[in-house]
Structure formats: structure tokens, C-alpha cells
Amino acid sequence: MNMKLVLATTFAALMAAPAVAQDGDKLKEVLDRGYLILGSGSTNPPWHFMDGDNQLTGFDIDMGRLVAKALFGDPDKIEYVQQSGDARIPNLATGKVDLTCQFMTVTAERAQQVEFTIPYYREGVGLLLMEGGDYADYEALKAGGSDVTVAVLQNVYAEEMVHTALPEATVDQYDSVDLMYQALNSGRAEAAATDQSALRWFMVQNPGRYLDAGYGWNPQTYACAVQPGDQRWLNFVNTVLHEGMTGVEFPFYSASFEKWFGTELESPQIGFPVEYK
Amino acid sequence: MNFTLFFADLWTARMNLLNGLGQTVLISVGSVFLGTLLGVAVGLALTYGHWLLRFVVRIYTDFLRGTPVFVLILACFYILSVVGIDLSAFEAGVLALTLFCSSHVGEIVRGALSAISKGQTEAAKSIGLTFRQSFVYVLMPQALRQILPTWVNTATEIVKASTLLSIIGVVEFLLATQQVISRTYLSLEFYLFAGVVYFLVNFAIEQAGRFVERRIAIPN
């Protein structure tokens, strides 16, 4: 059954029904309740997944924790709604969650149904190489022409996607992530093309074995989302995220970024605000 | 397949998986129990009800039996909350499965009751039994023997349908398994494991059903 279609239909039915009662003061509601209801997934590392101790964790979860910390001074005051990717928009529309942070790509279509916060990450495709392999970086891969084989997860657009960056490369498609990485390990492929976040997370888990070719393309913006119509709540979440990336909560944001993506962020420049540069 | 890693990860994730299995059992037992109660009422209404009641209940069963469980689950979770009934994901899921189960049990009960020949009811009447008495002492014992095998079948269907609750965020056994897979990448091993566990649960239900069938069988 086409899950997306069914959900879209359900959603259309919801839109036709009278809007969910809303008094327009979500911030007060959440503060009075004493905890944040955060919608996120549980099956996509490093974004949102169960760690070995059976706790939800990941970069998305940390963004929710940042908001909870701002609300209650305690990042643990969260009730999680573990939702599938398809449930992100319906759960916001029906008010089942206060906030969704679930690697949600910002698109104009979605922006008509939910209200996006400011972005907290920019996703893109990157190339993973073996440390000490024949090709040192993106330039070398490009110069390699059709001698270079790129492993990629099977997808209708996979070939086109790889050829955007490496027009002459040979593309081998694989059914699953582990097979793709195996192709790289065994030398059947010189590079693996995958999401930057997945690539970084893989490098964090296997230190010293892999290399990022240093080229990213196919940009996608990830933002949290709220139910439309409550500017106060949206402003609040925006402020929290913004100060996480540029202000007092920068240590929280950057520690999380380094934990999941292995990169130490440069502290925002002091003096003239970075936003206007 | 890497079974050394699998067993290590299985041990690490044991609590998560056990919780998931607990949810699956709770959802299934709850839905089958409530669905059976409701289903018996539906079956009785379909067999002995006033024509108007029969008509309404007929629409109810046909509608539910003709709708994918998946759609029922989404409807209970989302549409009900729009009209102001705010059920948790767990409650909405159990409600959907209960409704689905009741429609099937209703049909099973109706079928079993109508399969008993009319002579039985007439004989019961002729020895002076009231309708209640003839139902309890004559019809129900015979119908039960008919109902049991198909009822067991419905119960196993509900166990399998409970996996669909993962879509609305109930961490039942399948979602718990997927959570482990997403961390360990051992997809084949853990899906195989999940398959075996679901089989064992359903096998246990079927064996229990057979046992009861043998106990209540009319001795030759």
C-alpha cells in the first residue's frame, strides 16, 4: 500500500474539516504543562535513534533538548512522540506534538502546511574515500574520469546525482547502506556517495579509516516545524535555535554537532553580528 | 550474516525488544478481548436483531471488513482528534484493531449460528426452553465449536496487524526491531529474528486453540 498516498488523503480530509481549536498561545500551554512534546523519529542515526541504553538520541533530539532547556532549564523535560517520516505533517496539523525536529527538508510545498523554524543544518551529498587510497580528494576523483567507480544507494536519480559531481565516473548502485560501505572497503568502488550527515557519522564511528573528499552538492535545508498560526511560539523556537548557533547556547549546539558529525565548529565571531556579514 | 555481532547487539537491545514485545502482546490481547466482546454482540444482532438493527450492523461490519486496517488506524488516530476525541497513539491503535476484530468475529458468530439447523431451535422450543435457555444450552455450545478455529485465525491476524501501529508511533515489537537495525545495520539478522518471534507468538496461539478444541470436542 502506498503509505504516502494514504496519509496525504487522510491529511486532505483533515484540512477539509474545521481547523483544530487553537488559542494561539502554545508557549504558555507548554510552560504550564511543564514539558515539551517533541515529534521525532527513532530509526535514523545520527539524527534520531535509540542508543545502546535504550534512550532516544541524535542531532534532531539535541535540537529538541535545546528547546526544552530554554523552556524549563532542563533539557530532559521532553515527552517524545516517535513518529514515522510520513506522520510529521499530520501530527503537527492535529496538534499531537508541540514541535517536530526530524531531518525535515524545507520545501515550498511543505511550507504551505506547516511553519518552518530557522534551519539548523544543511544537508548535501558527499563522497567518502578510504584513508590512504588511490584518490586523495575530489579533484583527484574528477581527474580519474571513468576509472573511478562510485558506490551509491539504489535510487532512480542515483546515476544523475553522482554525475552532477563526477560526470564521467562509473556508478554502482547497492541495495543497502552496509553493502555500499562494503564495496568501498573491498576496493570495488573508489568512493561512496551518500548524505554528508551519514558520511560524517560513519567517520565518527570508524575514526582514522575514511576521508571526506571535501565536496558537497545537492543542498537541502533541515529545519524544525510547528503548527501554523502561532507566531509567538515560532519566534520562541527560532530564538532558541538561533542562539544555539550564534549565542549563549553555542557550546550546547557545537558539542552536539561535534558529537554527531565529528567537526569542531568555529566560535561565532565576536563584535559585528555574523548574521549580517 | 554476522551472528556474533547479532547476539551481542541482541543482548544490548534486550530491554528495548522485550518492551516492544510486551506492547505487541498487550495490544493484541486487548484488541482481541474487546473485539470479541463487541463481535459477539455484532453476531447476535446480525442473527436475531430487528431488521433495522440488522441493517445498521450489516453496514458496520461490511464497512470495517472492507477497509484496510492501516486506514482504520490512521482514521482512529487523526480523524478522531479533529472532532475533539484525543486518543493516545496506543489507545487509537487498540481501538482500530478492536473495531476490525469485532467485524470479523461478528461474521464468524453469525455464520456459526446460522449453520445450526432450524430443527435444533424447534426441538428446544418443543421441550419448553425459553429463547435464552435454548441459546445458552443448545445453540451456543454448538456454535462455539464452529467459532473457535476461525476465531484463533482472527487472533493471529490481529497480532500481525499490530505491526501497523508503528506508523502512528507505538513502539511495538517491529518498530523496536527497526530501532535496533538502524543502530547496528544488521537488517537481515534482526528481521529474521523478528519473523521468528512473530511466528512463535502465533504458533503458541494456534496450539492453545487446538488444545481447547480437543478439550471441547464431542467424544466419538
TrEMBL record, chain B:
State the organism of origin.
Sinisalibacter lacisalsi
What taxonomic classification does the UniProt entry list for its organism? Answer: Bacteria, Pseudomonadati, Pseudomonadota, Alphaproteobacteria, Rhodobacterales
Does this UniProt record's set of keywords contain Transmembrane helix?
yes
Membrane-spanning segments = 25-48, 69-90, 188-205
ABC transmembrane type-1 domain: residues covered: 21-209
Q: Where in the cell is it found?
A: Cell inner membrane; Cell membrane
The family this protein is said to belong to:
Belongs to the binding-protein-dependent transport system permease family. HisMQ subfamily.
Q: How does it sit in the membrane?
A: Multi-pass membrane protein
What does the UniProt keyword field contain? Answer: Amino-acid transport, Cell membrane, Membrane, Transmembrane, Transmembrane helix, Transport
Q: What is this protein called?
A: ABC transporter permease
Q: Name one Pfam family in it.
A: BPD_transp_1
Q: Does the keyword Membrane apply?
A: yes
The record, for Gene3D superfamilies, names:
MetI-like
Q: Which InterPro entries match?
A: AA_ABC_transptr_permease_3TM, ArtM/GltK/GlnP/TcyL/YhdX-like, MetI-like, MetI-like_sf
Chief subcellular location equals: membrane
